[in-house]
DNA sequence: AAATATTACTCTACCTGTCAAAGTAATATC
DNA sequence: GATATTACTTTGACAGGTAGAGTAATATTT
């Protein structure tokens, strides 16, 4: 399991990517992250919902209520046009970050 | 300039790498980071000295005073054996983090 | 000689993202 | 009816990073 304070700052990107594929609800995103990373990373519930609040306030995602299925009512999120632009920035930023940190990790093992 | 809250969590690794090359003092590390990254990233003074304190308390680095040269007295840091082990962990962790985040950035631009 | 720039480190108060813990509520299964 | 699972919310705390202000010594400019 990768420590989450090292993923910190990249959660917006991860979550936005999943929402940009299709509208999703919180619990689903949490499961999807575990699945895709093979449990190498799991997002904490409290963290996930905090991200939603932050992104919604900034108009990067917007919410609507969906079905009540097998449990609590689902709250779906969709990405806004502003959110798409933001995600695209984050992708660029990630490749810049990789370059920079790699500079310092080179030659070590 | 890359936002620093996205580098957050990797500062230990960057600083330790530089100290592991040779003993260094704070101001030097700050200059070296700017130099190597071509000013794409600059560490803030307050942050740098906060990292020193944290790492010293954990026995990952240790300090000794050097010359007073062209200004304030220099405080040099050297990496301890524990620090070397820690750095080696951080390098492994970095490659794990890259894999995970890349999973979610794939196919986007 | 005085003023300014540069080198070099320290401390405090604050901000932000993450998260443990506890809670609410509905459906499915035993 | 009890338990498990799905699903979301809120509160309070913590840790890392940072602006800003301060201290102090040497070098350069005026």
UniProtKB/TrEMBL annotation, chains A, B:
Residues forming coiled coils: none
Gene3D superfamilies given in the database record: Winged helix-like DNA-binding domain superfamily/Winged helix DNA-binding domain
Lineage top rank: taxon: Bacteria
Name of the protein described by the UniProt record: PadR family transcriptional regulator
Protein's organism: Lysinibacillus macroides
Chain ranges of the Transcription regulator PadR N-terminal domain: 15-88
